């Protein structure tokens, strides 16, 4: 059972002006930083673009395997969002460019009984999301940050961002998104982190 300090219908917890999602700008327990700290599993894979590919598979009608060129030829989305790390820092108003996961899902056509996705990184990292959170329009697979190619230490050439969840839900060095009809836990979820990861509920850990 997930431990949440407040129920799903309780007011969001945080401080500051109301953000683009109708939430307090800074979630409870977070401190704003101008820097972008680097956190990983101790491995920063350097994937050459000619060898990079992205798989979208699992319970879908049309599995995809995209090369870098094919990925870059998809509709590109620019967005501004905030980044909330479970280690209590938040970086605000980050400018991204990438492909929305919802657009990739439209190509792959998940089955009607899909409930979750599991994301995989080239560093063997995994993380899970509910299908409702995964298909929010600000969940992007980004290749550009502040007008520059996403750096290796931050997950380049492509990482996923999940602005309405804690950032561990966005796999760095992403290589695969698997659509599932049941929940599977990822790396940190298996080690006691929350499956749901809502920043405005202080939803960091499971029991």
Notable characteristics:
disordered N terminus; mainly beta; 8% helix; 207 residues; five-stranded mixed β-sheet; globular; Sulfite Oxidase, Chain A, domain 2
Helix and strand layout, with pairings?
Blueprint: E1 14-18, E2 24-27, E3 31-32, E4 53-58, E5 64-67, H1 68-72, E6 77-84, E7 89-100, H2 101-108, E8 116-121, E9 126-130, H3 131-134, E10 140-145, E11 148-149, E12 159-161, E13 174-180
Parallel strand pairs: 3-7, 4-13
Antiparallel strand pairs: 1-2, 4-5, 6-7, 7-10, 8-9, 8-13, 10-11, 10-12
Organism: Mucilaginibacter sabulilitoris
Pfam family, one: Oxidored_molyb
InterPro entries: OxRdtase_Mopterin-bd_dom, OxRdtase_Mopterin-bd_sf
Any overview of this molecule?
The chain has 207 residues and is mainly β. It has one domain (50-200): Sulfite Oxidase, Chain A, domain 2. It has three helices and 13 strands; from the N terminus they run βββββαββαββαββββ. A hairpin with a 2-residue loop joins β10 and β11. It comes from Mucilaginibacter sabulilitoris. Residues 44-188 form the Oxidoreductase molybdopterin-binding domain.
């Amino acid at each position: 059972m997930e431990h949440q300090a407040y129920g799903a219908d309780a007011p969001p917890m945080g401080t500051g002006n109301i953000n683009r999602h109708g939430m307090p700008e800074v979630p409870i327990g977070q401190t704003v930083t101008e820097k972008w700290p680097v956190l990983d599993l101790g491995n920063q894979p350097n994937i050459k673009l000619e060898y990079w590919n992205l798989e979208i598979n699992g319970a879908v009608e049309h599995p995809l395997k995209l090369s870098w060129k094919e990925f870059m030829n998809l509709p590109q989305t620019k967005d501004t969002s905030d980044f909330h790390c479970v280690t209590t820092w938040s970086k605000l108003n980050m400018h991204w460019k990438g492909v929305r996961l919802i657009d990739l899902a439209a190509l792959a056509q998940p089955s009607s009984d899909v409930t979750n996705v599991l994301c995989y990184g080239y560093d063997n990292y995994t993380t899970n999301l509910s299908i409702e959170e995964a298909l929010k329009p600000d969940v992007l697979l980004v290749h550009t940050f502040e007008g520059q190619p996403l750096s290796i230490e931050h997950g380049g050439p492509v990482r996923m961002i999940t602005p309405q969840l804690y950032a561990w839900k966005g796999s760095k060095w992403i290589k695969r998104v698997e659509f599932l009809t049941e929940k599977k836990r990822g790396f940190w979820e298996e080690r006691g982190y929350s499956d749901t990861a809502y920043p405005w509920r202080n939803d960091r850990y499971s029991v």
